Structure formats: C-alpha cells, structure tokens
Amino acid sequence: MFNIFDQLNDQLLITDQAAKTQFCNAQKSIVHQHSSEKLKRYQALEQELQTFLSIATDIHAILNEHLEIISCNNGFQNILGWEESEVLKKNYVEFIDYPDAVQIITAINECKASGQVATDIAKCKCKEGKYKWIEWRGKYIANKKIHLLTGRDITLQKEQEEERLAKREAEELEMLKDEFLINMSHELKTPLNVIYMTLQLESEEIKSALEKKGQGIELNILKRHDKIIQRNVYRLLRLIRNLTEIAKLESDEYRLNFINCDIVSIVRQISLAVVDHMQSTKVKITFDTDIQELITACDPSAIEQIMLNLLSNTIKYRKDESKVRVSVTVKDNKVRVTVKDNGIGIPKTELEYIFKRFAKIDTSLNRKCEGSGTGLTVSKYLVELHEGSIWAKSQLNKGSSFIFEIPIVQISDEKDIYYGSTSQQIEEKCNIEFSDIYDI
Ligand code: ADP
Predict the structure, then answer these.
(1) Radius of gyration of the CA atoms of the chain, in A
(2) Does ligand 1 lie within 6 Å of residue 359's CB atom?
C-alpha cells in the first residue's frame, strides 16, 4: 500500500506543500481505515477459530521446536483427562507411551525435514492411569518454528479391530485344532489298524493250527506278521516322539546337550549305517568330503536325527534307482551338510511349506509310503537350536537337495571328543525312522 502511494507521490511530482500535506493526510487516513478493518476481520476470525477449537472433539495443540506444548484446546482434558495447566510447557512426548514415543519423534523429525504432514498412531497416557489410542497429525511451520498438532481418539475403533483380530485368531486356532485332530486320528488309526488286522490274522492261523492238531504254524508267516507289527509299532513310536518333540520345541522346553564332536565322523557313520539298513533296496548312498575331521560343539543325537530324517526321505521319495550323495563342506566358519537325491522332487510352490507341521505333498491313497509330515518340522527346530539354518532346493522329477548349516564353535574347557553312536544304537534309530517305508 505504501509503495503505491510513494509511487503516486513521485509520479504526480507534487510541489505544492499544502497539497502535499493534504495528500499525505488522505493517504494516512486510508491506510489507517484499511488496517483497522483488517484488524477487525482478523479479530473476528480469531474469535471464530477459538470458538471452533473449544467445541472441537479432537485435541489441537501448538508445540515449540523442543516439542513443548505452548498452546492447546480442551481436547487434552476431554479425551485424556489432563487440564490445560497440567499440559502447558510440558513436552508432548511425555503423554505418549514408550515405544510409541520413539516412533512419534522419528515421524515428527522426518516431516520437519521434508515439510510433509506427519501422521502416526500412538498409545497415550490418560490422567487416571489408563491408555487411549490417538491418531496424531502434525505439521511444522518453518517460519514460526512451531508444530501444529491435532489428535483424534480412535480407541473404540482400535478395540473393535483388536476384538475382530482376536476372534479371527481364535477361529484359526479352532480350525488348526480340528485339522490336528483329523491328522492325528488318521496317523494313529492307520498303523493301529494294520497291527489289529495282523493280530487277527495271526490268531486265526493259531486257531486253525490248533484245530488241525499236530500241524504246526508256518514260522515264515509268523515272522512276516511279526515284522509288520514291529514296523507299525515303530511308526507309532516315531509319530509320538516327533509330536512330543514338536510340543517341547514350540514351548521352549527342549534342551540340547552340546558336546565337542567330530561332525564329519557323525555324518559319515550315520550315512554308512543307512546303507547297511537299506541293503534290500536299490539305494546307493555316497559320502563325500575333503575334511578329515571337524570338531564343533553340537548335540550328536540331534544331528543324527536330522540326518536320519533327511536320508529316510531320500528313500521314501525315491524313483526306481535311488542315488544319494551326502557331503560335508566348510564355509564362513559354518559347517554345511548337503543331502542330495535323484528322487521325485518337490514342486516349487510346495518348497516353502514342507518344513511346516503335517506338510505332505502327496496325500493320495496310492502313495509309495506313509509319512506324518512331522520329520522336517523337528529337523528345522533342531537345526535352529544350533543357531543354524536348513533349506531345500528341488526340481520336479529330477531330485532334491536338503542343506543345513551350523556355526563352528568349540567348548574350550572340554577335552573329550564324541565320534558317533554305536552301530547298534544307530540301527535302533533307523528302525524307528524308516518305519514309514513299506518295501524294506
Ligand atoms: P514325512 O514324515 O511325511 O516324510 P517330512 O516332514 O520329513 O514328513 O517331509 C514333509 C514332506 O516333504 C513329505 O511328505 C514330502 O512330501 C516332502 N519331502 C521331504 N523330503 C523329500 C525328498 N527328499 N524328496 C521329495 N519330497 C520330499
């Protein structure tokens, strides 16, 4: 405004002093009139804004650069119960629960730098000790060095959302429980039925032998029946062992017994024992390593169990002529064991599920062998208890590789080194682990 008058003054080149004074007075009067109108408009606007903020249901506050509240409406009192005097000059973050406070500070700083509007949800402290969920939105006004802040109470929505989630979780849990019971009854029923039917057959034979006095029972038949019963008892034992182990592993109750072991010897011995156990099948297992001895702290029973699970799977899911290669290598201070087969392979889409409980790809009735889908779950847990990892690579109809890695560590004050179980102990473990395979 002054600029325009100054320009006019210059342009008109008023020389007459009286006219000049008159012009200046007129000029001042217009400016004065204009400013007071503007002031009135501002005051009315401020009044409206104050009324608007006092009746607003949300929190509105202005913070200084240090996030101290320098002005606020009664939203703090209406929503969180804090009176204005208890809030003013306090740091805004004091009203937010940790760790949400850290998150809010990060969001405010990010938006201060970028000039964007900061949005975040935080659990906030009420005066009477409870908490409420507030959705905050804030913007930094750089030329005034203040933050403008609004907060909306979303506790009810949040509680409803949590209730919905809890309900969904409960439904999923119920479904899992049902699925578990169906799986369980199938897994228990199948071997029990076989045992029951074999025993019935056997008692029929005994009965008819007794009736035909003098004529003995054929021992070969009895032996065959015994083998069937034994295998199905092992199957039940394996299932129950795996389920108990999964339950213990999932509830953090499982403890490993770490000792210094020669892991190369353990893996070699178990592979050779499986070759012995599998004599009757067309399975060729080769063991390959450049390392003669590798001492690391591990639980040898756990390593044997993982190996037996992986090796038994190469046989269960083999094609006619099975070739299996077991290798031990060292990389980045970790020992890596690979079990590679030329079996039926696993579809890409199934690879991520096979380590989950009860995962079975072929659920058809004519599958070559039974499996409870618990072995890999236990193996994964056992590897992870060694701070290691296990994964699989596979190509359908070509074969699979199961690889596990554990860090190389040693218990310094332990002198004894464990080289592996006795062949008798391994044979017993093989009986249990291989009980799912029909034709051995
Ligand atoms: P299971 O007792 O059924 O063998 P696992 O947990 O050991 O249970 O394996 C889960 C599933 O992963 C198996 O049912 C099978 O479908 C698949 N699988 C595991 N190992 C192999 C393998 N070497 N070749 C092909 N499929 C495999």
Answers:
(1) 40
(2) yes
Determine if ligand 1 sits within 6 Å of the CB of residue 375: yes
**pLDDT at 76 > cutoff 60:** yes
**Buried (b) or exposed (e) across 158-175, using 16+ Cβ within 10 A?**
beeeeeeeeeeeeeeeee
pLDDT value, residue 2: 41
Which residues contact residue 238 at a Cβ distance below 8 angstroms, ignoring those fewer than 6 apart? Answer: 372, 432, 433, 435, 436
Q: Which H/E stretch holds residue 147?
A: strand 146-153
Q: Is any atom of ligand 1 closer than 6 Å to the C-beta of 379?
A: no
Instruction: Label the pairing between strands 59-63 and 146-153.
Output: antiparallel
Q: What is the pLDDT of residues 15-71, one digit of tens each?
A: 566 666 776 777 777 777 778 888 899 999 988 888 888 888 899 999 999 999 999
368 pLDDT exceeds 70? Answer: no
Q: What is the pLDDT of residue 438?
A: 60
Cβ of 191 less than 6 Å from ligand 1: no
Distance, CA of 345 to CA of 396 (rounded, Å): 4
What's the rounded Cα separation, in Å, for the pair 86 and 76?
10
Q: How far is the CA of 425 from the centre of ligand 1 (A)?
A: 24
Q: Is the CB of 376 under 6 A from ligand 1?
A: yes
HSE-CB of 51 using CA atoms within 13 angstroms? 6
Instruction: Write down the pTM of the prediction.
Output: 0.64
Tell me the CA–centroid distance for residue 373 and ligand 1, in Å: 7
What pLDDT shows up at residue 71? 92
d(CA 43, CA 379): 75
Whose structure tokens read 């009736």? 211
Q: How many Cα neighbours within 13 Å face the side chain of 221?
A: 12
- Ligand 1 pocket: which of 186, 338, 344, 346 to mutate (most atoms within 8 A of CB): 346
Quick: pLDDT tens for 149-204.
999 999 999 999 999 999 999 999 898 888 888 888 888 898 999 999 999 998 88
Residue with token string 């964007």? 116
Sign of the torsion formed by the C-alpha atoms of 274, 275, 276 and 280: positive
Neighbours of 346 (CB within 10 A): 19
Q: What pLDDT does residue 414 have?
A: 77
